[in-house]
Write a structure and sequence with these properties.
The chain is α+β, with helices and mostly antiparallel strands and 618 residues long. Helices cover 53% and strands 10% of the residues. It contains 27 helices and 15 strands. The strands form five sheets. A four-stranded mixed β-sheet has the order 8-13-15-14. Strand 14 and strand 15 form a beta hairpin. Helix 4 runs parallel beside helix 7 and helix 7 (150-171) packs antiparallel against helix 8. The termini are far apart. The mean pLDDT is 89.
Length: 618
């Protein structure tokens, strides 16, 4: 059903993008719900880059954001190179239109984690119903919908498949070479997003499950299958690293994020347990929820806590070698959930972060890996209760666990503010009761408890992203067509957008023309030294950031500023010779600019178009 859903939505060209924010009439192609301004990384950055790739024949490099950048490193962009071996889902872009390719990728990002968790649980438990119920906790987690991006969804999809394939290589000797090769390929694909704040904890989760599922007596049987998997994955990753070696080294040397290290205890616990109440803020276009924006406040159902309290899952740690597979997996997942929750909410010795690589992630990003680990824990717990591997907790432990989890949930609700408003008490009370009942049923070993928890969070997640048909807000935007018309008639020269005009910048980037603004994944140092020959501003431009330009006639020398940690702004005269060195020929501006070197080539006829100038004798 999950695969059929993806196929149908792909055929219809339906996605959940917020690209409607790029048009004044945002409802024209939005079938339901509303575009989200807070999802700027999607509608303002990545989606225009995907469209850009389609106009550039999916090239492996692009002239954008001051210099030339390798498209195969970040943002999971489709490129017609050997990288498709690690990003096989991008192949659909080569066979389908960009709109249908984007729709396929979007829904695989959302549904893929469900498939990955379901497949792994099915191998671990052999129970279809239980695996489906637990995997739904991932599919409908608000944090996945708010952070819908390949870097969030695909590592779970591929990671679950890789882990399941290794286990199948042990259990089905006839096909073990196929499962081993598949595991190595999937593991390599899981790493291709290169977003360490999620890759590190996901690697911890899946490696922990795999290690726990294999008994000491079967280690010898694992050596050859795991060796084949490691060889296949290692070759793919090695080829990828060698192809993008210079870019990866440059990223590692940046001020941000190269020198950034995460610290423990930076996330407030109430946000971690706030998923049931996410629905209270979803109806607003943008809101401060739990004192931060809606995406930063989102999480999933932290059902690992009542399961650990009532299920005695940590008891297996003391008898690791003699315990059965399910008991070991339960113990491993319980320990990992406690570790990640502790790193997220309380001070933890930094040495633990270095050993586990959790210092590579900001505490708030752990809400998503914790959601996945929690769903796996719930699935294995239900299966263990169902077949008697784990005795059903007595009523006293269940009451205690429900009371603690219900109390924490109520405490989170009591601290919640939507902007400056307290949520409706009646609705909050109903949600708390639903969470308590769901927890009680779950601890009794009933999948109905999981399904009730899914209903609670689904009321929020299904409304988070709009139902967007196609990508017309980009492809049919008046400015996009303006730029394409000029570029088709006179394709030489780079483009620049005047001011912090985010809509214009996104559409110019999407058009595929060479441009000096946009998202800079890492700095092209030679290009930046055109503005900063003495390297005095290295700490400002040596980072991952969006690049914009203020064109101010009379500016004596270019000035580099940093309005935000991930935003670089250059102030420069539109006729400054430095722009000649970057081959800037075309200027896009919402307002008229008077400068000797600028000749207007196209004037706006409505609010969505812009002035287009040609630079001459700059």
């Amino acid at each position: 059903m999950a695969v059929l859903f993806i196929v149908i939505m792909t055929a219809l060209g339906v996605n959940g993008s917020s690209v409607g924010m790029l048009r004044d009439d945002r409802t024209e192609t939005v079938a339901a719900f509303q575009p989200r301004v807070i999802r700027g990384d999607e509608w303002r950055a990545r989606t225009p880059l995907v469209v850009r790739q389609s106009f550039a024949d999916f090239a492996d490099s692009t002239t954008m954001a001051v210099g030339v950048h390798d498209t195969g490193v970040f943002s999971d962009l489709p490129a017609r190179t050997v990288d498709v071996l690690m990003r096989p889902t991008t192949v659909v872009y080569f066979a389908l239109s960009v709109e249908r390719g984007f729709a396929f990728e979007w829904w695989l990002t959302i549904v893929g984690p469900f498939i990955g968790v379901y497949v792994l649980l099915l191998v671990l438990t052999g129970r279809v119903g239980t695996s489906v119920a637990a995997a739904l906790l991932v599919l409908f987690a608000p944090v996945l919908s708010w952070w819908a991006s390949p870097g969030a969804g695909l590592p779970v999809f591929y990671g679950g498949i890789a882990c399941a394939a290794v286990l199948l290589a042990l259990r089905r000797p006839r096909f073990w070479p196929c499962w081993s090769v598949g595991a190595g390929w999937a593991a390599a694909a899981a790493t291709s997003s290169l977003y360490m704040p999620w890759l590190a904890p996901f690697a911890l989760v899946f490696a922990g499950v795999l290690a726990a599922a294999v008994s000491v007596r079967r280690l010898r049987e694992l050596v050859v299958p795991l060796g084949i998997s490691a060889a296949v994955g290692g070759v793919l990753i090695g080829v990828f690293v060698l192809r993008h070696r210079d870019a990866l080294i440059t990223v590692a040397r940046t001020v941000y994020p190269g020198h950034r290290a995460g610290r423990s205890g930076e996330m407030e616990a109430m946000r971690l347990f706030g998923a049931p109440f996410d629905t209270l803020a979803t109806g607003r276009k943008a809101a401060a929820f739990f004192f931060v924006n809606q995406s930063e406040a989102s999480s999933g159902m932290m059902l690992w806590l009542p399961v650990i309290l009532a299920g005695g899952t940590l008891a297996a740690i003391g008898r690791w070698r003699s315990a059965g597979e399910r008991s070991r997996v339960l113990a491993a997942l319980a320990a990992l959930c406690i570790l990640m929750a502790a790193w997220a909410t309380v001070p933890v010795p930094s040495i633990i972060g270095r050993i586990t690589l959790l210092d590579q992630t900001h505490s708030s990003r752990l809400a998503w890996p914790l959601t996945v680990a929690s769903a796996l824990l719930v699935g294995v717990y239900l299966a263990a209760i169902g077949d008697g591997t784990l005795p059903k907790p007595d009523r006293a432990r269940i009451r205690m666990a429900v009371a603690v989890f219900g109390g924490i949930t109520a405490w989170s609700a009591g601290r919640a503010l939507i902007d400056d408003d307290r949520p409706d008490r009646t609705v909050v009370f109903i949600i708390i009761i639903a969470v308590v009942v769901a927890t009680w049923l779950l601890l009794q070993g009933r999948a109905s408890g999981v399904l009730l928890a899914v209903v609670v969070i689904a009321t929020s997640s299904v409304r988070i992203n709009p139902v967007q048909v196609g990508l017309d807000p980009i492809l049919k935007a008046p400015l996009f067509q303006q730029v394409r018309a000029v570029a088709d008639s006179e394709p030489t020269g780079a483009w620049i957008v005047a001011g912090d005009d985010q809509v214009a910048s996104a559409l110019v980037v999407a058009s595929g023309v060479p441009t000096v603004e946009g998202l800079s994944w890492w700095p092209d140092a030679d290009a930046w030294r055109i503005f900063d020959p003495s390297d005095e501003a290295n700490g400002l431009w040596n980072r991952l950031a969006g690049v914009s330009f203020l064109l101010v006639p009379g500016t004596v020398v270019p000035l580099i500023g940093l309005p935000a940690v991930d935003q670089i702004q250059v102030t420069v005269d539109p006729c400054d010779p430095t722009l000649d060195d970057l081959h800037v020929r075309w200027v896009v501006s919402a307002d008229e600019i008077e400068a000797e070197c600028l000749v207007e080539r196209d004037a706006p006829t409505d609010d969505e178009e812009r002035h287009i100038y040609e630079r001459r004798d700059g």
